[in-house]
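Budget justification aside, the reviewers requested a transparent look at the raw inputs and outputs of the sequence design task funded under Objective 1. We therefore reproduce one unedited record. The lines immediately below are the C-alpha cells for a 388-residue chain.
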C-alpha cells in the first residue's frame, strides 16, 4: 500500500531564480530573509530532515546526519503564481505566463461582465484585498455594486459583503466571470472574496473560493485516479485543479485545519496520493508583509511536523515543498520568482542531498515512478536517489 504525501507551504521560496530580474524580484529569498529579520526563528524538525543542509546561502541549522532527503527545485514554467507552481508540481509546464492587468481589466471585459451580472462594479484596478474593502466597502453597501480588483498575479477578484450579495450569488458571479475570462484573457483564477462587518471594521470571511482554469493537459492527479489510486486533496488543491483527478477533498479554514485534515487522511488505509496546500503563509503573511506572522506560522508547522511523521505508514513517502516565493521582507506585496525547497522522508528512504532540480515536475515524475503510474508528465524522477 504505497502512498505519496505532498504538502505545499504556499509561498515559501528559498532564493531568487536566475531570471528573477524579469519579474522585479531580485533579492527575494523568503526563507532566508525571514531568518535574517528574526534570528531566533528555529525550524528544528524541518532541519532534522535536511532543511539547513540545502545548497544555498543557508542560515538554518545544519544537521550532521539528516533524517531525510533535501534539495531545491527551479521553476521551469513562465510565471510565479499558485496555479503555475502547482501545475508544474503535478507534471505540466507553461510556456507563457497567465495574463496580468496592472491597469485593470479592459472595458470590453468589464462591460460584458456587468451585462452578465446585471449591475455596475466598483474599482477595477490592482489593490490589496484588505485595503480595498476598507476604501470601497461603504460605497459597495450603498450601491450594491461588487468590488472588482486584481494584483500583480493573474487574478480577477470579486469582493462583496455577505449581507449585500449572498455568498452563493457571489459564487455565481465568479462563474460568469470565469466563462468570460478565456483565451488571451484567460486569467489563472477568478476569486470570490466575501466579507462582513461594519464601516471601518470590514473583515474577509472564510468563504473565499477560487475558480481556476482547468489544467491544459493531464496531470499526475488525472493519471493516478484513472489508474485506480485514491487522490485526496486538502485545502485549495481542488480549486487549483478544478477538482480534476481528485477522488476525495476537504476544504480547510487555516493551516492548523489543513495539518489536522492531512493527518486524518494519513490514518486511513488506501493507496495513492495526499496533496495538501497550506495557504496562510501566502495569503495572511506574505502578501501583507507580515514577517513576524510568517515566522510564527513556519514555527507552527515545524512543531506539528512530528505528528505528521508519526502518522506515516511503512510505504509512505512525504514531500514538503512550496509553489513560489512570497517574501514578506521586500517592498513588494506580491509573489516572488524563487526556487522552492524540497525536503522529504519515508521509513524506507535515504538521507540524500538531491541538490538543485531543474523543474518542480521532478517531484511528479518521482511520485509517478514510485506508485508505478503511467502518464505523459514532464520532469525527471530522482526516486533511485532516495529509496533503499
Amino acid at each position: 500500500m504505497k502512498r505519496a504525501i505532498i504538502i505545499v507551504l504556499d509561498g515559501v521560496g528559498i532564493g531568487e531564480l536566475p531570471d528573477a530580474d524579469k519579474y522585479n524580484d531580485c533579492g527575494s529569498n523568503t526563507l532566508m530573509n525571514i531568518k535574517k529579520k528574526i534570528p531566533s526563528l528555529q525550524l528544528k524538525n524541518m532541519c532534522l530532515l535536511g532543511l539547513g543542509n540545502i545548497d544555498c546561502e543557508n542560515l538554518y541549522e545544519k544537521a550532521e546526519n539528516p533524517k531525510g532527503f533535501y534539495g531545491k527545485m527551479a521553476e521551469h514554467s513562465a510565471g510565479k503564481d499558485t496555479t503555475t507552481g502547482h501545475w508544474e508540481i503535478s507534471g505540466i509546464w507553461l510556456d507563457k505566463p497567465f495574463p496580468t492587468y496592472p491597469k485593470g481589466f479592459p472595458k470590453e471585459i468589464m462591460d460584458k461582465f456587468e451585462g452578465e451580472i446585471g449591475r455596475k462594479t466598483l474599482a477595477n484596478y490592482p489593490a490589496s484585498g484588505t485595503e480595498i474593502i476598507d476604501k470601497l466597502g461603504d460605497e459597495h453597501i450603498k450601491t450594491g455594486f461588487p468590488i472588482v480588483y486584481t494584483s500583480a498575479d493573474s487574478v480577477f477578484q470579486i469582493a462583496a459583503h455577505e449581507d449585500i450579495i449572498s455568498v452563493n450569488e457571489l459564487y455565481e458571479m465568479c462563474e460568469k466571470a470565469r466563462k468570460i475570462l478565456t483565451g488571451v484573457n484567460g486569467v489563472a483564477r477568478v476569486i470570490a472574496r466575501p466579507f462582513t462587518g461594519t464601516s471601518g471594521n470590514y473583515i474577509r470571511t472564510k468563504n473565499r473560493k477560487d475558480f481556476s482554469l482547468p489544467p491544459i493537459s493531464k496531470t499526475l492527479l488525472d493519471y493516478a485516479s484513472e489508474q485506480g489510486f485514491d487522490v485526496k486533496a486538502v485545502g485549495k488543491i481542488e480549486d487549483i485543479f478544478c477538482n480534476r483527478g481528485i477522488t476525495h477533498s476537504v476544504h480547510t479554514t487555516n493551516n492548523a485545519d489543513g495539518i489536522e485534515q492531512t493527518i486524518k487522511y494519513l490514518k486511513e488505509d488506501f493507496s495513492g496520493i495526499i496533496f495538501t496546500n497550506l495557504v496562510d503563509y501566502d495569503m495572511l503573511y506574505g502578501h501583507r508583509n507580515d514577517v513576524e506572522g510568517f515566522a510564527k506560522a513556519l514555527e507552527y508547522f515545524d512543531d506539528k511536523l512530528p505528528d505528521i511523521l508519526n502518522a506515516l505508514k511503512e510505504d509512505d513517502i512525504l514531500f514538503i515543498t512550496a509553489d513560489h516565493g512570497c517574501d514578506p521582507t521586500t517592498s513588494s506585496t506580491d509573489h516572488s520568482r524563487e526556487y522552492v525547497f524540497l525536503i522529504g522522508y519515508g521509513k524506507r528512504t535515504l538521507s540524500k542531498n538531491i541538490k538543485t532540480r531543474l523543474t518542480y515536475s521532478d517531484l511528479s515524475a518521482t511520485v509517478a515512478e514510485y506508485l508505478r503510474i503511467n502518464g505523459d508528465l514532464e520532469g525527471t524522477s530522482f526516486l533511485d536517489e532516495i529509496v533503499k
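The CA atoms of residues 15 and 56 lie 8 Å apart. The chain has 13 helices and 15 strands. Computational costs for records of this kind are itemized in the attached budget.
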